[in-house]
Specification:
Elements (H helix, E strand, L loop, with lengths): L25 H11 L11 H8 L3 H4 L6 H28 L5 H13 L5 H8 L5 H28 L7 H19 L7 H25 L1
Helix pairs in contact: 1-2, 4-5, 4-6, 4-7, 5-9, 7-8, 8-9
Length: about 220
């Protein structure tokens, strides 16, 4: 996809004397920024000079691709959201075609992405709590996309079981916010705890879904 970081180093960029690159793409700058973020380092703490140094370019070359660091952060958030929606969507489709739990498969896909080397999910989890209003608005936009896709899936899955949900939009919001909050907590936990956390999150989601189905009859 255009603008997404290439794998590995930046093979397309040619080196010039002094270690800097003669040409660099928008994706190369995004990839450089991603190497600097992590569980305890958000995009909002990065400086333009840090990113330029990591990308191997002069600071002025940064402005050929991004207006400022805010624009870079929003691009990272958008990329992270698209990537995670694709991964979770694929996990739900695989589970729906087998006997596996759609809930557990989706949570497992989320945790696998949390531990992935590209650290894209770290961007979504960190920037919603820190950074500028532009960062927070971008994260909120991605969460809204997740909620809408999940709402559609929840209605479809409930119908397949001959059931309905009370306020499916609110159910999808509750599940999305729960998973992201637990994901933020998981960043500070060792990977050995992931299986236990997946089980806890899956049970919490099932509780929400069970309650939503029961409320249909109660209302």
């Amino acid at each position: 996809m255009p603008g997404e970081p290439s794998s590995g180093a930046h093979p397309s960029a040619e080196q010039v004397p002094g270690g800097r690159k003669a040409s660099i793409s928008r994706g190369d700058i995004i990839a450089a920024a991603l190497t600097l973020v992590g569980p305890h380092r958000s995009v909002s703490t990065l400086s333009l000079r840090e990113v330029a140094r990591e990308a191997g370019i002069a600071p002025n070359s940064f402005y050929r691709h991004f207006r400022d660091m805010d624009e870079l952060a929003v691009a990272l958030i958008d990329l992270a959201g698209r990537s995670l929606r694709r991964i979770i969507g694929e996990a739900r489709q695989r589970a729906a075609s087998t006997d596996r739990s759609v809930v557990r498969s989706s949570v497992e896909a989320f945790m696998e992405q949390l531990r992935a080397d590209d650290k894209l999910l770290h961007v979504l989890l960190c920037e919603g709590a820190v950074g500028s209003d532009a960062f927070k608005q971008a994260v909120e936009r991605e969460l809204t996309f997740f909620e809408e896709e999940l709402r559609i899936d929840l209605i479809r899955l409930a119908a397949a079981d001959g059931a309905t949900l009370h306020e499916p939009a609110l159910v999808s919001k509750a599940i999305t916010r729960l998973v992201f909050a637990m994901g933020a907590t998981a960043m500070d936990m060792p990977p050995e705890k992931d299986e236990q956390l997946v089980e806890q999150i899956s049970q919490m989601i099932r509780m929400i879904l069970t309650g939503a189905r029961a409320l249909v009859n109660a209302s």
